[in-house]
Design goal:
About 30% of the residues lie in helices and about 15% in strands. By secondary structure, it is an alpha/beta fold. α1 (about 35-45) crosses α6. The longest helix has 17 residues, at about 65-85.
């Protein structure tokens, strides 16, 4: 049975999966979708798969940008997706970092990946079946959050394929989201 028939929900990291990760991206002028991402997300939307973004945003705690900056960028990103017939169920983010410079945000919290807090909060809010959910991320912390939430499978976006050879729990490694959707989902 193809993977697309085994899943209802996909948790997506943002930086490095949806957009090019150039380091603490927080302005629309810096935001660039990875090639093929919009087409892949549009196809997933057509399949009826719920898409949830789960993103660490430690740059807020470090004082590089504000929560308002993040929200403004997120709104523009979602608007662009919506104009391409892409439906994102929700965006969950963690503004905390244990080494932050903003005292009220300088902490280790259950939302910060690799902890599963954002995934569990989304599952509770939307009554999602985590056994029919996967996560796609570009860092080990993303996949560990999925593993810690007992998701069905964990997929890595890593054009170098370097990490995929080191971690046995990774179910697949792809150069980008488009590669995953159009070369794996149907199998």
């Amino acid at each position: 049975m193809p993977l697309k028939n085994k899943i209802d929900n996909i948790f997506l990291d943002r930086d490095g999966v949806i957009n090019i990760d150039s380091g603490y991206v927080h302005k629309w002028s810096e935001f660039e979708f990875i090639e093929g991402t919009l087409e892949a997300l549009k196809y997933l939307t057509k399949l009826g798969i719920k898409l949830i973004i789960v993103t660490n945003q430690g740059g807020i705690a470090k004082g590089f940008y504000t929560e308002e900056d993040f929200q403004e960028l997120n709104k523009k990103m979602i608007d662009r997706m919506r104009s391409n017939d892409i439906k994102i169920l929700d965006t969950f983010y963690c503004p905390h970092h244990k080494d932050g410079n903003i005292p009220k945000l300088s902490m280790d919290c259950n939302y910060r990946k690799p902890k599963p807090g954002m995934i569990l909060a989304a599952a509770e809010k939307y009554s999602l079946d985590l056994s029919r959910s996967i996560i796609i991320g570009d860092k080990e912390t993303d996949l560990m959050a999925g593993k810690n939430a007992n998701l069905y499978q964990y997929f890595l976006i890593d054009p170098s394929y370097e990490l995929s050879n080191k971690k046995s729990y990774i179910n697949g490694c792809f150069k980008n989201l488009n590669d995953f959707v159009f070369n794996h989902l149907e199998k």
